[in-house]
Design a protein that fits this description.
- The complex is a heterodimer of chains A (337) and B (508).
- Helix content of chain A is 75%, strand content 1%.
- Chain A is mostly helical and 337 residues long.
- Chain A has a single domain, classed as Orthogonal Bundle (ABC transporter involved in vitamin B12 uptake, BtuC), CATH 1.10.3470.
- Chain B has 508 residues and is an alpha/beta fold.
- Chain B folds into 2 domains: 246 residues, Rossmann fold (3-Layer(aba) Sandwich); 238 residues, Rossmann fold (3-Layer(aba) Sandwich), CATH 3.40.50.
- Chain B is globular, with a radius of gyration of 25 Å.
- The two termini of chain B are 32 Å apart.
- Classes of the chains: A mainly alpha (337), B alpha/beta (508).
Chain lengths: 337, 508
């Protein structure tokens, strides 16, 4: 980082210079790389992948990206405040299992009120996710355990709890209305999960860019000590960040449950890595303080497009993981210099 | 010590070629001339003291001698031959070692491992010869007479002990030229004497030594020659037994009235009062003072005397162990800086990079940060128009160019970074300020703007506690001045009693 600073100060930007394309590219290198990769992959797949640009396929991509997108937003919030959340995947599974169990039991007790079952189940799932997030935040901010270790540990604990509750088997007996609305429902032709994800994008965008809490989040990740000395209660900021991330991950778990129509303990394992990749490709730094919600949307779509395009080109799953990893490294190599 | 004598070039007292010769050395950073036209002859067996205020160019000079920095003008000669010290490694290969104030130690390795670092000995099979390395380090420590345990982890040592490890590293390889940057600032009396004994031995073995110190009494005790630097220029090179008065005059020579604005003193009621305050970190032991409205009270003292911790303790960033802080006569307990800001007290930290600013964020974000919670535009949702007006108004007050407010702070010069930091303190209704080293690494132009801002604040009736290691600044700006030593407030001076010698005497 210091070399960057020196390079910048060596060529002082005079205040009156006209904004040109090249200086903009240099200033926003990560945005440029992201757009380059995104447009590049769109062009490649629209040429080589049959049916890639069809409305049906694009709707499909939109629906598929919902889950990763919400988890990536959760990851973004934690990354901005200088943390890292490896437990998002296991929170997804926990919320699925907790939500499904509560729903199934409430429905079994009161078969006439599926709405109550859905509300109770979703509330329980979201609360479980928020609770895990609170614990993660507490361990990171108060006990000062590095977020990497804290969330690695808690994800193992959560996975165990999930297996305990579910016994390792899918949980059936959900109200059909749940899947029909949150899994497969559409409003004006737009899938409900997509609408939920869009709502979350708007909420996270507003939270980060237009609220005091958002500023405190960036300040805490940018320089914890400076934020503290500016009167920011950084512990609370960090705990809240993990809690919000937990709730968002839990929401993803519930949406997946609606789609699968069962509570599953074996979902979400790939989400921590994919969500971190989506954020990092979008220019979020692992050291904190930097990252935009809209860029993360593009980063997530890039990953899902690449997966979808390769599916259409009938490239196998093994090759797909290789390509995703290579894109991540490539994006880093372009932005780091 | 035999190893040193063997490797050190030239016998003591040889008046041959200088070990290192600086010829017209200068360094320019952008438009700022940090150093210019310095010419030095460092003779074998000579202790050459560099003396000057903060920012006079001492650090720039030694960093070029050590290969950490390259001159923009002039060149260096070693034993009569012109050399380019492109890297620290190159300078080391030529026998130049430096002990800077920032250490180059690995915290999780032992003292012995740190001393051996980069020069590890290996056994026949290519494995580390650990016991041999340890024994060598222990021998070196014993030889130097330092009170150090070779097996201790560096992270668990005090700053003073770490300093000694750093010195061991430097002299273990028998340097031709040893550069010591304020080595005694954190040493105890015993270790200081051990260091002086070492310096005398190296001297006798023909090593040339560059020694930076702010402690006047060390100069005749250890030095042979003194070079005084001021504002990047070599003011004089004189024998070390020159009168202290003369040296201080050479050092401070500038006319104070040039950069310090007039601050009329119209003290009002007591705003901030400390009664026998001690901090939980133990660095502040018994500090008492009072600051009135419209008054600038300076706090002077050596680096490490606890004056910075005093500011942080008042602000609630460090816990209070004993004593009281009174604001407007009422006892206050700040458990978090947020409590202090809400009560109308602001602390501006000394280290803007680590404690003051989020360097990757824009000046705009940095300036407005606390105002969202405590300022005129407080509220959960941001109001961009109002925020923009606030930041532009504050920028004007501290003479920060608002047109650059959306650039990341890391793009800025030290002066503009400092102005950003000071603007933060104006974004909410505050009228009791603690400024900790507000002009470190700031050029003269920005200093003037900062001083003007202090005098305006003071004229508006703010109470200001100005903590600084820059004595001329305190003499120029404060209405009253307190000296801290070992965490205690030991002396007070009114403006009409300001006398540099009397004040400096209280430092030790």
């Amino acid at each position: 980082m210091s070399t960057m600073t020196i390079a910048k100060s060596a060529t002082p930007a005079s205040p009156g210079t006209k904004p040109g394309v090249l200086p903009w590219l240099r200033q926003h290198r990560s945005t440029a790389v992201l757009l380059f990769l995104f447009i590049g992959s769109l062009v490649i797949f629209s040429i080589f992948a049959p049916g890639f640009l069809s409305l049906e396929n694009l709707t499909n991509v939109g629906r598929q990206s919902v889950y990763l997108l919400i988890v990536s937003l959760a990851q973004l919030i934690v990354l901005i405040c200088g943390g890292l959340d490896l437990s998002v995947g296991m929170i997804v599974a926990l919320a699925s299992v907790v939500g499904a169990s509560v729903m199934a039991q409430v429905l079994a007790a009161m078969p006439d009120s599926p709405t109550l079952a859905i509300v109770a189940g979703m509330a329980a799932g979201l609360a479980a996710g928020g609770l895990v997030g609170l614990v993660n935040g507490w361990g990171t901010a108060v006990l000062r355990i590095p977020a990497f270790m804290m969330t690695l540990g808690s994800s193992s604990v959560v996975f165990g709890i999930t297996l305990f509750i579910s016994g390792g088997v899918p949980i059936y007996g959900l109200p059909p209305e749940f899947g029909n609305s949150f899994g497969f429902g559409r409003i004006y032709g737009v899938p409900i999960p997509v609408l939920v994800a869009l709502l979350m994008v708007v909420l996270v965008y507003v939270l980060l860019e237009w609220t005091r809490y958002g500023r405190h989040l960036y300040a805490t990740g940018g320089n914890l000590r400076a934020a503290e000395l500016s009167g920011v209660r950084t512990r609370r900021v960090i705990i809240a960040a993990f809690a919000v991330a937990g709730v968002l991950a839990a929401l993803t778990g519930l949406l997946l449950t609606a789609r699968l129509d069962t509570g599953e303990s074996n979902i979400g394992a790939s989400l921590p890595l994919e969500s971190i990749a989506a954020c990092v490709i979008a220019g979020v730094t692992l050291s904190g303080g930097v990252g935009r919600a809209l860029a993360v949307v593009v980063g997530t779509l890039l990953i899902v497009f690449v997966q979808n395009g390769m599916n259409l080109m009938q490239i196998g799953a093994y090759a797909q993981t290789m390509v995703i990893g290579a894109i991540l490294i490539f994006a880093m190599a372009l932005t780091r210099r | 010590m035999s190893q040193m004598a063997a490797a050190a070039p030239g016998a003591p007292g040889t008046n041959g070629a200088p070990v290192l010769k600086a010829c017209g050395l200068g360094k320019r950073y952008g438009a700022h001339q940090a150093l210019q036209g310095v010419g030095l002859d460092l003779m074998p067996g000579e202790v050459h003291v560099l003396f000057g205020e903060n920012g006079a160019g001492k650090s720039t000079l030694i960093s070029m001698m050590a290969g950490a920095n390259q001159p923009s003008d002039g060149h260096l000669e070693i034993m009569g031959e012109r050399v380019e010290l492109a890297t620290v490694a190159r300078a080391r290969a030529l026998g130049i070692r430096a002990v800077f104030q920032e250490f180059s130690l690995i915290p999780h390795l032992s003292v012995a491992d740190n001393i051996a670092l980069g020069e590890e000995s290996v056994g026949t099979l290519g494995f580390l010869a650990k016991s041999a390395m340890r024994a060598k380090a222990a021998r070196l420590i014993a030889d130097l007479g330092f009170d150090l345990d070779a097996d201790a982890l560096v992270s668990q040592l005090s700053r003073g002990k770490q300093q000694m490890v750093e010195i061991c590293k430097a002299v273990g390889q028998a340097p031709r030229l040893l550069i010591l940057d304020e080595p005694t600032a954190s040493l105890t009396e015993h270790d200081t004497q051990a260091l002086f004994a070492l310096v005398r031995r190296l001297k006798a073995a023909g090593t040339s030594i560059v020694y930076i110190t702010h402690r006047m009494h060390e100069i005749p005790e250890i030095g042979d020659t003194v070079t005084v630097l001021r504002d990047g220029r070599q003011v004089a090179t004189v024998p070390a037994d020159t009168e202290a008065d003369a040296l201080i005059e050479l050092m401070t020579g500038r006319t104070a009235s040039d950069i310090y604005p007039e601050c009329a003193r119209r003290p009002g009621k007591i705003r901030l009062e400390l009664k026998h305050l001690s901090s939980a970190c133990g660095r502040v032991k018994d500090a008492s003072l009072e600051v009135r409205a419209g008054e600038i009270v300076g706090v002077a003292g050596l680096v490490g005397c606890g004056k910075s911790e005093l500011g942080q303790t008042i602000f609630g960033a460090i816990g209070t162990a004993a004593g009281e802080v009174l604001l407007d006569g009422r006892k206050v307990v700040f458990r978090h800086p947020a409590d202090a800001i809400r009560a109308g007290l602001w602390y501006s930290p000394a280290d803007r990079k680590h404690d003051g600013l989020a360097m990757m964020r824009s000046a705009f974000d940095n300036i407005g940060l606390s105002s969202l919670m405590f300022g005129r535009n407080r509220g959960f949702f941001r109001r961009p128009g109002q925020e923009g007006r606030l930041v532009s108004e504050l920028s004007r007050q501290v003479e920060f160019p608002f047109s650059r407010a959306h650039e990341p702070v890391s793009n800025f010069s030290g002066g503009n970074q400092q102005k950003t930091l000071l603007a933060k303190g104006l974004a909410q209704d505050i009228d009791v300020y603690v400024f900790d080293e507000p002009t470190v690494g700031v050029d003269v132009g920005a200093r003037q703007a900062i001083y003007k801002y202090f005098s305006e604040l003071s004229a508006r009736g703010a109470a200001i506690l100005l903590i600084s290691s820059d004595l001329p600044e305190l003499l120029g700006m404060s209405h009253r001045l307190l000296v801290m030593r070992d965490g205690r407030t030991v002396a007070g001076f009114g403006r009409d009693e300001f006398d540099e010698h009397a004040i400096l005497e209280q430092f030790f």
